[in-house]
Write a structure and sequence with these properties.
Blueprint: H1 4-15, H2 21-30, H3 35-69, H4 74-89, E1 93-100, E2 105-112, H5 117-120, E3 123-125, H6 129-137, E4 141-143, H7 156-165, E5 169-177, E6 180-189, H8 197-255
Antiparallel strand pairs: 1-2, 1-6, 2-3, 4-5, 5-6
Helix pairs in contact: 1-2, 1-3, 2-3, 3-4, 3-8, 4-8
Length: 256
């Protein structure tokens, strides 16, 4: 028969990483004489594991930020964030759409884990589907079963692409920098999955990193293009100046 002391010992070992959660849960269940102590032990276990998970996620986010800081190409930034989102949330698919101000919609830019060509080239009008609603409202949305979820405005194009990809559960969050809407980052599963508030918050942190990195790389690219144009103009000016200077030198030579 397990005792409260056994339970405390297992909690201490769990804190040191020497005991498994399953072992502690079994010990709590066996403590029939002190059910309240068993319930409290399980609450402590859940808090410990949640703290460990948050520490692990924070370390992962720091690593991702470091990786993104070393990228100067927009495509590399987006590939990195989508790939890491899929790994960190443990989903079957992750993808990112970018906002097209000219067309007033978002278009698929990067995917990880996708197999459907139709899905990889999908465009989402603002307000249509889960992603279109995220884009229009600029707030996160998620569902454990997208098909048949009447909170979203279903279209044939979106439903066909999602069905071809086999996606069931979707979580999407906006990419925002200040008031600028950049796009939407998604994590999705091919089986029913109730996304938790922690999942949504984690995806939101990744989206924030992606948005800032994307805007920075775009600004760097714009600055580089401007400098290149100035160099080109300066070079043309130098050549013109040299051409104008030659006749002057010839006149001086003739004067002698």
């Amino acid at each position: 028969m397990r005792t409260v002391l056994d339970l405390l010992r297992l909690l201490a070992e769990r804190a040191d990483g020497d005991a498994s959660a399953d072992e502690l849960e079994r010990a709590a269940a066996e403590l029939a004489s002190e059910p309240e102590a068993g319930a409290l032990a399980l609450r402590v276990l859940a808090a410990m594991d949640a703290g460990r998970r948050r520490e692990s996620e924070l370390a992962a986010l720091v690593g991702i930020a470091r990786d993104l800081a070393s990228e100067s190409d927009t495509g590399s930034v987006l590939d990195t964030i989508v790939r890491r989102a899929r790994a960190l949330l443990g989903t079957d698919v992750a993808y990112l759409t970018l906002y097209d101000a000219e067309h007033g919609d978002t278009y698929m830019r990067v995917t990880s884990g996708s197999v459907s060509r139709r899905f990889q080239t999908l465009r989402l009008p603002l307000g249509a589907g889960l992603g279109g609603l995220v884009a229009a409202s600029r707030t996160p949305h998620w569902t454990g079963r997208y098909a048949g979820d009447d909170r979203y405005r279903h279209t044939e194009a979106i439903d066909t692409a999602v069905g071809e990809e086999g996606i069931v559960a979707i979580c999407g969050t906006p990419l925002l920098v200040d008031d600028e809407f950049v796009g939407v980052l998604f994590a999705a599963n091919r089986s029913a999955r109730p996304f938790t508030p922690d999942d949504v918050a984690l995806l939101g942190s990744l989206a924030a990193l992606a948005a800032v990195s994307l805007v920075q790389t775009r600004r760097l690219a714009d600055t580089a293009a401007t400098l290149e144009a100035l160099r080109g103009g300066g070079a043309r000016g130098d050549r013109g100046g040299r051409r104008r200077a030659r006749p002057v030198r010839r006149r001086r030579a003739g004067g002698r």
